[in-house]
Amino acid sequence: MRELFLIADIGGYTRFMRGQAQALAHAQVVVAKLLEALLEASAPFTVEKLEGDALFLRLPWPKQAPPPALFPAVEAMHGAFTARQSAMEAARTCNCDSCSQMHALRVKFAAHAGEAARQKIGPFTELAGMDVILVHRMLKNKVPAPEYLLGTEPVLPLLGGAPPAVRLDHDFEGVGPTAAYYRKLPAARPPHHLAPLPLKIAARVMLEFKGLLYRLGLRTAISIKQS
Question: Which residue range(s) make up the domain with 153?
Fold first, then answer.
């Protein structure tokens, strides 16, 4: 069955994760909170896989079914991301490299529709196929914007709105020439006012507690509960 694939990828993740132990632990906490915001706003998509700094989502799209609301879903996820980012910045009391740079993180989206097969390797299962490979290859592109939705020809009707999507063809590794279209997402962040002191204290306590779990090896990967 044909499915709509969507990846929400946090840009600047590799550079953000560099630094000494405290900054690295805080970076893991910050990215987890931003991924949680994306996840909470991801309906009607189902999360297929958490990929470090990205969410791989899917939505069944039978050929006779009405087109899904892709761009509104992306707008909702982007809005949740920026709102969580602004709220965290408002409550920030730590000036380590990671915390002081959290405002610079951005999120980009890649979408494609196609077929996929589920393969089982030991106790694990995952989606496989050229269409799955393509949507992942799309994260390495030449879109001239920090935040955007990039889609292929099959999802072009789902990129509607004003201004219209801009065509920007690519030659993706292992896939070949591919017609692609992008729409920019707003770069501005919601205005935020400094949080009250009790909220700042609570946020700092949770930051240090969760960061300690990472440093002690009690939490070695970002854990997000899927609904």
Answer: 3-215
For every one of its 227 residues, what pLDDT tens digit does the chain have, with 9 covering 90 and above? 789 999 999 987 666 666 545 577 888 888 889 999 999 999 999 999 998 889 999 999 988 788 898 999 999 999 999 999 999 888 888 888 888 888 889 999 999 999 998 888 888 888 889 999 999 999 999 999 999 999 999 999 999 877 889 999 999 998 999 999 999 998 888 777 777 878 878 888 777 777 767 666 656 554 444 43
| 204 found inside a domain | yes
**Residue 224, in any domain of the structure:** no
DSSP string, the chain: --EEEEEEEEETHHHHT-SSHHHHHHHHHHHHHHHHHHHHT-TT-EEEEE-SSEEEEEEE--TTSPPP-HHHHHHHHHHHHHHHHHHHHHT----SHHHHTGGG-EEEEEEEEE--EEEEETTEEEEESHHHHHHHHTTS---SSSSEEEEEGGGGGGG-SSSPPEE--EEETTTEEE-EEEEE---PPPP--PPPHHHHHHHHHHHHHHHHHHHTTS--S------
CATH of the domain at 121: 3.30.70.1230
